[in-house]
Amino acid sequence: MSGSNQHQVNVHSRLTVVSSIPTEPMGHTTPLNPLDHTMGSHTVHIIYYYRTSPFSKQGRYAMDLDNVRIALSDLLSKYPRMTGRLFRDVDGKWEVRYNDAGVRMFKATVGTTVDEWLRSADESDERNLTVWEDMPDGNPTSWSPFQIQISEFEGGGLAIGISFPHLLADPTSAVLFHKSWTDAERGDPTGHHPPILTLPPLHNRPPPTTTENTSTTIKYLQKNSKLSPISSTKMATFSFKFSNTMIKQGLSKITDKCANATPFDYLTALFWLQIIKLKTLMADSDTHSISLCVDARKLLDVPIPMKFFGNALTFSQLSVQNEVLKGDNGLAEAVRLLHDHVNGIKKDDVVSMIDWLESSPEAIDGVYPKGVQMYGPELTCVSLEHLMDPKGEFESLVYESKFRNNEKPVHVSYHVGKAEGAGLILVAPSPEGGLSRTVTVTMPGEEVVKLCEDPEIMGMEPTMIVSGRR
Known about the structure:
This protein is of the alpha+beta class. Helix content is 27%, strand content 22%. It has 14 helices and 16 strands. It has helices at residues 34-38, 65-76, 80-83, 114-120, 123-126, 171-186, 212-223, 244-252, 263-278, 322-325, 330-343, 347-359, 445-451, 455-458; strands at residues 9-17, 29-31, 43-50, 85-88, 94-97, 103-110, 147-153, 158-165, 235-242, 287-295, 313-321, 380-383, 411-416, 424-429, 437-444, 463-465. The strands form 3 sheets. Strands 11-10-12-14-15-9-16 form a 7-stranded mixed beta sheet. It has a 6-stranded mixed beta sheet with strand order 1-6-7-8-3-13. A hairpin with a 4-residue loop joins β7 (147-153) and β8. α7 (212-223) packs parallel to α12 (347-359) and α9 (263-278) packs across α11 (330-343). The radius of gyration is 22 Å and the shape is globular.
């Protein structure tokens, strides 16, 4: 709980939500793949804010956990990976046992309105809207990996926090689950379409073609194949919301260098350069590197990419000469190089990464299932550009999550547990739609505070969200 009464979150109810239809065959186990295992040291926490509660005050959809449980049970029947439990097999590798043990759900109240919370709460307050709980040692057979917290604000606002180990799914999976939940509540039949729970077979295939990106991906994993020691440096998180107008202006300035640049390309380059300057690294290094995380669903030939539930991320590293970044066209050059790098990632790069993980278990600290430090050893930037709705450029799948009252979220927050070191930047869609984006930055506290005063970033007039009255 936070120290301020205004930001106090009181968790007062808990129950378990199970599937309405038993999984068949009961007790079936599914092994986790190498991509899952690499994410084992991290957790994911996503919070959806609604200005008014999507549940009416009486009847089946009243804000009562029993009623919410009824609405969820049918949907969870299609998500045995969420309702099952984690086990280790005889070789120590993780698997999910489909035993319908259910997800934990909590109910809480918050001592302020949702608008005041978004203006004045900070990341330490926001942590209380989701569950931060380490997985128990050994075989956590009675532990619920997926946990949902529903928090009511004064004045009728609501927050839905979803927490889970990254071992089981990536942020996109949670976004798609939440959208299916809202679709089902509205009676939209698409909400009842089952997810895809396994990646297409990658065996019995010709050896992948080695590319420059392939080698950088393997080097990235080799470099981060051991967990970094827990740092005593206090990390802080701030969120910057950039408008459609300001992003359009920024992109127009670099059109001659990269006409097809995305908001992710532009914002990542902007923050990267300002962080380099902030750390006075321009004069200290010949090259600068950044780690990039992008979605790989389409690259892995998932039949319906936005229905896959699991981990489908690829990490790689981009290194750029100092002379390029500090020139008069440094920002435009950085945007172009980022854009070309991301668009140059191919299926063979991801397959090579999986091959390396499968054939070289000793590369991960001597034990195949050992999680590695995927976020934060170096500055890591995560793209959620793929969540923009392909049907149109003005909306995203994130903000299409509308319950029965047809109100979209006013804000969505993303956090990754144990993202330490140099820091994490996550570029996500914004409720305004179009080119607008929300950038969430987690860095050592003193550094991120200075970033909030940077004239280049603040010149784009961002709105600060859940950043402690900035």
